[in-house]
Amino acid sequence: MDGQPLFESERLVFSTWTPDQLEDVFRLHDDEEVGRYLMGRAETREDAQKRMDEWADHYAKFGFCKFRLTRKSDGAFVGRAGFGTHGPENTPELGYAILRSEWRKGYASEAAIAIRDWLFRETDHDFCWGFAYSANTPSIKILRSIGMEFTHTEIEPETNQELTFHKYTRDMWHG
For the residues of 92-159, what is the DSSP string, one character each? Predict the structure, then answer.
């Protein structure tokens, strides 16, 4: 990945990552409050490197990843949003994480809408998943607010926490 901007929303720029941006990923995922909504804990620098490697692999294989988010107005790092994969079919899984200092400014909703629209505009995927820990009511509200429909819950083996799954289809996007 080369760090080039790929697309924009009203206030955000979505780009790929460069190796020198590891500290941003670590800073985002090292925060206890952010981490509890991602893996149930804060993450290490090694975890951050694994994430970046995984995103580079996803981008090479699938043409999408968890993109870097910067604010248009000043170029400041805000978080990440994009897609991982879920299940044996590698279905796109919508996900985002925003620096805690940037919470409650509408960036998560803006990013979720932008990546959802990007997926259906730029790929031929028929649907995507979005899931969050069932206790993460703010993220569940965002998934629902962008039109995703609840489908089911599952227990995540790594954390033993319940995940709430939502789905959004190309037909829903066409409205």
Answer: EEEEEEE-GGGTTSSHHHHHHHHHHHHHHHHS--SEEEEEEETT-HHHHHHHHHTT-EEEEEEEETTT
Separation CA 111–CA 167 (nearest Å): 17
pTM to 2 decimal places: 0.92
Residue 112 has pLDDT above 80, yes or no: yes
Instruction: Tell me the chain's radius of gyration from C-alpha atoms.
Output: 15
Single out the residue of 17, 35, 132 nearest to residue 77, CA to CA: 17
132-167 pLDDT, tens digit per residue, is 999 899 999 999 999 999 999 999 888 898 999 999
pLDDT band of 43, cuts 50, 70, 90: confident
Q: Which token pair is 158?
A: 């790594």
Q: Which of 39, 64, 70 is nearest to 116 (CA)?
A: 64
